[in-house]
Design a protein that fits this description.
Largest sheet of chain B: 6 strands, mixed
Number of strands of chain A: 4
Order of helices and strands of chain B: EEEHEHEHHHEHEHEEHEEEHEH
Structural class of chain B: alpha/beta
Number of strands of chain B: 13
Shape of chain B: elongated
Shape of chain A: elongated
Helix content of chain A: 55-70%
Number of helices of chain B: 10
Distance between the termini of chain B: 34 Å
Radius of gyration of chain B: 24 Å
Oligomer: heterodimer
CATH architecture of the largest domain in chain B: 3-Layer(aba) Sandwich
Structural class of chain A: mainly alpha
């Protein structure tokens, strides 16, 4: 085995065999499971406490009482305000809704008053305003002698379905861009996260070796290039291992989660059968979306994901490695130098979010070929059918730049790891790029 | 060329100082060779050039022709003054990793590491992490890491610092054993009594220059100051008829310096004639400590 191979396998194995790695790799999907289950129960369990709300109707409109629900019980009362308040103080009620005088059909804004010592939560507010809105609407229609069926005919539900002009363009439906946006955003974010997490891992490993001086022994056995590349590749493979394990575990765990939450496909179908006509199309939509996701060119998407993960990881972890070598005896003073890495990568993240909103913009084109950003932006853009030539240009620039950055980083690295004492300034780093060994 | 290592006019300059200024030296095979010098003299820079960590601006570093096809790094074992090991790795894994980086196969590494752990009777440390070891213990591991790949040139920078007398002797014996087995040891230290005890040849560098080099015995001889110490039974009160130059008198011990053209035999004859009973008569050779201080000071005042 070559020396590079020995370093890679050491970096890889010591990390993968580490208890912390095993635990986080296995527990993260479990964490997702717990997260989903908790969310599910939070969403499905309404608060069990019922609120008693007095309605003091002074609007002169004959407003209908809203229906009671699990959370609210409505009591119409003509008692004066003072006695209602004292009832609330005695614990017979929780809130008083005062409906002031309604001036007539020309009124566009209407304010009701909610008296309570308890907070008006969002659900409550939405429910009350919806109830008042529909009540007043009915009242206005009555006064204006409007027929409800006529009025319903005025509204038209609009949807715009995109269709391609040229034949060879892939068939798009109205869901394509939504799915692409979500999927692209998720991919860009995952790549950002992995590069940052494992890049920082490379930096820590370099600094540790420098601080405990083992590097002096190692560097008399191998070249700095071998050491740096060995670390980058070793740590990168750990990242890849983790991603692959998660790719397998998360869907499995997700299914278990669905089983635990007691929701199965039949339930969903039964539920959709019970909902009114308007919402039944939602179920159809889900069918469409699933179909759409299956139709995506996953081979291309995952291929691009891996290529850009590799390119991006090389670029950023080489920068991290150079910074790790420049840090002095105190591992904590790396912060001001890490800024050189975190700023471009964060800008890349923001560029990515703007690109998936407007994938045809000039910014999107530039970001998808600019090598510091393309590892985040291109995987996010790929569900939007990026032209082949743009993809190839971007990959070419990515690897040319990765090569260049590794070349520069090695020059900083080999000088930095042998310097002891205080951390280097940005100016010194620049100088090290040009020092001979 | 019969030397293991030959440096020819090696020169290395950093942005603000000349670290190594035209140093030439030859390290013979099977020899303990001292590399001496005050702090900041350029020893570490020189060692880094020999190990290939840095390259000289000018001059050459060459190993014996028989190693021309061997990778230099496998010829050298280097124990830096600032010790370092992977704290989170176990002793066994770590030693095998470092051995393999030097070019040994997995099998050979395992064999060699086992041999050394057995030799030091620390086989039980195999699965211990370095962070669990004491300073002296990790020093032993560090020593094994330096020599386990059977290097021809072993560079030891202050190998005894932090060791108790028992472990110091243990390592000292190993160094001598390695030398007898054919390896050369480049030994850098500030402890001059160790130089006198172990080294056959030395080079003394100061401010990047070679200021003194040669065999330890020759150097001491060439620095002799014609001092002798005479021990007598009775205390001598008058030196008039002895024709000697007394430097110091302590009870029965008299330290004298020979006058010009005076031989030690003449002094001895004078003593015998005077009837004083002599117990011993010895030349006082300068210690390496004295030579070191004197040479460095002279050089600094130039």
């Amino acid at each position: 085995m070559s020396k590079l191979g020995i370093i890679i396998s050491k970096e890889y194995l010591t990390r993968v065999k580490n208890k912390k790695f095993i635990i986080t790799t296995l527990l993260t999907p479990l964490g997702f499971l717990v997260f989903f289950v908790v969310i599910f129960f939070l969403m499905s369990n309404e608060s069990d406490k019922q609120y008693n709300v007095f309605i003091s109707d002074q609007s002169n409109t004959n407003i209908k009482m809203p229906d009671d629900s699990k959370r609210f019980k409505f009591i119409k009362s003509s008692d004066p305000m003072d006695s209602l308040k004292s009832k609330c103080n005695r614990g017979e009620g929780d809130a008083i809704l005062v409906l002031p005088n309604f001036m007539g059909p020309d009124v566009k804004n209407y304010t009701a008053y909610y008296y309570s010592d308890k907070t008006l939560d969002i659900e409550m507010e939405a429910k009350l305003s919806k109830y008042l809105e529909s009540s007043l609407r009915n009242h206005k229609m009555q006064i204006l002698s409007l027929d409800r069926t006529v009025l319903d005919k005025v509204d038209t539900k609009i949807s715009i379905d995109p269709e391609p002009i040229s034949d060879n363009s892939s068939n798009r439906t109205k869901y394509t861009s939504k799915i692409a946006t979500l999927l692209g955003g998720a991919m860009g974010y995952i790549i950002f996260f992995i590069i940052f997490l494992y890049g920082a891992g490379v930096m820590r490993s370099v600094t540790e070796e420098k601080i405990n001086r083992i590097v002096e022994v190692v560097i008399s056995s191998v070249t700095p290039t071998e050491l740096m590349l060995g670390k980058i590749i070793g740590v990168g493979l750990v990242g890849l291992t983790q991603i692959i394990i998660w790719m397998i575990l998360i869907p499995v765990v997700y299914m278990i989660g669905i089983a635990i939450a007691g929701v199965n496909v039949n339930d969903i179908q039964a539920m959709s059968a019970n909902i009114p006509q308007e919402q039944l199309t939602k179920a159809d939509e889900i069918q469409f979306v699933i179909q759409e996701i299956m139709n995506l060119n996953w081979f291309k998407i995952l291929g691009v994901f891996i290529i850009y993960f590799l390119g991006g990881f090389f670029i950023y972890s080489a920068m991290f490695a150079a910074i790790g070598a420049a840090v002095g005896d105190d591992i904590n003073d790396s912060q001001s130098l890490t800024m050189f890495v975190s700023i471009p990568i964060l800008l890349g993240m923001y560029a990515m979010f703007s690109c998936i909103r407007e994938p045809d913009s000039n910014l999107a084109f530039f970001s998808s070929i600019f090598p510091l950003w393309s590892p985040i932006v291109m995987p996010a853009m790929i569900p939007f059918d990026v032209p082949w030539w743009q993809l190839l240009l971007s990959i070419l620039l990515l690897f040319a730049f990765a090569y260049f950055i590794v070349f520069i980083a090695v020059r900083i690295f080999r000088t930095g790891i042998l310097m002891y004492g205080k951390k280097a300034s940005a100016k010194e780093l620049l100088k090290w790029m040009f020092t001979k060994q | 060329m019969n030397h293991l290592l030959e440096l020819d006019k090696v020169y290395k300059e950093y942005s603000n100082l000349i670290a190594v200024n035209n140093i030439s030296l030859k390290v013979p095979s099977s020899c303990i060779f001292g590399l001496l010098g005050p702090n900041g003299a350029g020893k570490t820079s020189l060692i880094r050039i020999i190990t290939g960590i840095t390259k000289p601006d000018k001059g050459t570093v060459r190993f014996h022709n028989s190693y021309s096809n061997t990778n230099t790094s496998s010829l050298i074992g280097y124990m830096p003054e600032e010790r370092g090991l992977y704290k989170k790795m176990t002793v066994g894994e770590q030693l095998i990793y470092l051995c393999r980086l030097k070019g040994l196969s997995k099998q050979d590494s395992l064999q060699s590491v086992n041999y050394w752990l057995d030799k030091f009777e620390i086989q039980s440390w195999w699965n211990k992490k370095v962070e669990e070891l004491s300073k002296g213990m990790s020093q032993k591991v560090q020593f094994i890491a330096t020599v386990a790949h059977k290097p021809k040139l072993i560079i030891l920078d202050e190998p005894f610092s932090g060791l108790d007398p028992i472990n110091t002797n243990l390592i000292k014996d190993e160094i001598i054993q390695l030398k007898n087995d054919g390896a050369s040891i480049l030994f850098s230290t500030h402890r001059m009594e160790q130089v006198e005890e172990l080294c056959e040849e030395i080079v003394l560098v100061n401010k990047g220059k070679n200021v003194l080099s040669g065999h330890v015995k020759d150097i001491r001889q060439s620095h002799r100051e014609n001092l002798f110490i005479i021990e007598t039974i009775d205390t001598i009160s008058s030196f008039e008829d002895l024709d000697i130059n007394v430097v110091k008198q302590e009870n029965h011990n008299i330290t004298i310096r020979l006058k010009d053209n005076q031989s030690s035999n003449q002094v001895l004859t004078n003593f015998i004639k005077s009837g004083h009973q002599i117990l011993s008569f010895n030349e006082v050779l300068p210690t390496f400590n004295d030579i070191f201080i004197k040479t460095v000071n002279e050089f600094s005042h130039e």
